[in-house]
Amino acid sequence: MSSNNRPQILVVDDEPNVGMIFHRILGEAGYDVVSASNGMECLRSIKKQDPHLIFLDIRMPGIDGVETLRRIRETHPILPVVIMTAYQTVTSAVECMKLGAYDYLIKPLDADRLKSIVKQVLEIDKIAQKTPQVRQAAEADKLPIQDVVAEGLEMKQVIKLVGKVAPTDLTVLILGESGTGKEVTARAIHHQSKRNDGPFVVVDCAALPESLIESELFGFEKGAFTGADSSRAGKFESANKGTLFLDEIGNLPLTTQAKLLRFLQEPTIERLGSRKGPITLDVRILAATNVNLERAVQNGTFREDLFHRLKVFLIELPPLRSRSPEDLERLVSHTLDIFRRQLGKETLIVAPETFQVLKYYRWPGNIRELQNAMRSAALLAEQNILPTHLPMSIQSSVKVAQEAPKSDSTGLGDVIKRVEREHILETLKQSQWDLEKTSDVLKLDISTLEYKMKNLGIRRPEGNP
């Protein structure tokens, strides 16, 4: 922390002139600027300086900006981070936004935009004005929700399986719908393993274009392809002595699947364009997906031999709608407790009628949707969280279900399907039948959305592309 009480900005970039630009622009604006040249130096600086805001470059030697952000989030979940990139591509930026980056900037930097975003972060989020006690309380909460909430039998079984497999080096396949906590479960396995002092590296296989995925995973040597002006380590090397979590592994191309299978058989990789031979690594593989891999094997889009190597140990996560009311109540309480401390509010109470709405709702986006709903409710409520503080999608969906005609021939399953159909249909109409936008709003994978549309008899109107 700055000794003269001026907000401190940490700039992380391997190009020295970038730090100089920040010193000139932000120094004149009244901020203290500290520089770091790589990810590891950034992590060390955070421990020593406790900055108010970080500007982080994506492409750096050693651990890149995405992995650096993941490690920052493990210890400092509310510290604002702005990503910088010189490339007009959004893949890495989108991945960083998923990890909790506040925003991203395109180089070359614009001085007015830079000062504006610093002012916005420090004033709107009030990070600079938070008391040290509030910041420390929020940052000290590192327990994954799945580790804390396991009242129902299904989740107790999941926790039991995590405890059994974590001390081993077995490959684990985690199955579950989007938002059920697959990455949280993988992190719990890593943190309870003998590798917990090593890196935990996450790769979202669905977010990487096929043309880049092999270079991201295995790295490349200078000159391996057009634009490879320097050598770079891949995610496998970044995860050495630790754990590599391959999320949405069903999206891996067949050629990359073959290389992953080879690694599982013999733990070596080769960088693209390398003439030095294979590199031996010590990496544990955890994988997850929300698609049916057995069906993918039958369709020829996933290798059968890789499927069997991955499911050495299988963990299936239940959707939130099938978990016990006790689990839901604890999840709500735990999530609100985190936001209460972050916002500096003394109490946040869920009104009984609000909890009835939460229990009635089907949660297509699972725990992630619940967390988002509780975050917005915590911001709006002064003390008592009422149904009106919940997102309109939840209020309208529950209202449809409550007003649905009941008869002897209509079971609960029919009512639930009607509610889900109306909710999906309304979201499709609002997005003008754009499946990508709809899947983002509903927190569903596009393949899952298409499956639900078919199952619920939802057809695109004629004339819509």
Descriptive overview:
The chain has 465 residues and is an alpha/beta fold. It has 4 domains: 8-140, Rossmann fold (3-Layer(aba) Sandwich), CATH 3.40.50; 145-318, 3-Layer(aba) Sandwich (Rossmann fold); 324-403, Orthogonal Bundle (Helicase, Ruva Protein, domain 3); 420-465, Arc Repressor Mutant, subunit A, CATH 1.10.10. Helix content is 48%, strand content 12%. The chain has 21 helices and 14 strands. The strands form 4 sheets. A 5-stranded parallel beta sheet has the order 2-1-3-4-5, with helices on both faces. Strands 7-8-11-6-12 form a 5-stranded parallel beta sheet. A two-stranded antiparallel sheet has the order 9-10. Helix 4 (91-98) links the parallel strand 4 (81-85) and strand 5 (103-106). The chain is globular. Mean pLDDT is 81; it is low at 124-148 and 407-412.
CATH architecture assignment of the largest domain: 3-Layer(aba) Sandwich
Compute the number of structural domains: 4
Sum up the overall morphology in one term: globular
Counting DSSP E segments of at least 2 residues, the number of strands comes to: 14
CATH topology heading of the largest domain = Rossmann fold
Note poorly predicted spans: 124-148, 407-412
Largest pleated sheet = 5 strands, parallel
CATH class category name of the largest domain: Alpha Beta
Overall structural class, as computed from helix and strand content, comes to alpha/beta
Helix content: 40-55%
Task: Report how far the terminal alpha carbons are from each other.
Answer: 54 Å
Which sequence of strands runs across the widest sheet? 2-1-3-4-5
Number of DSSP helices? 21
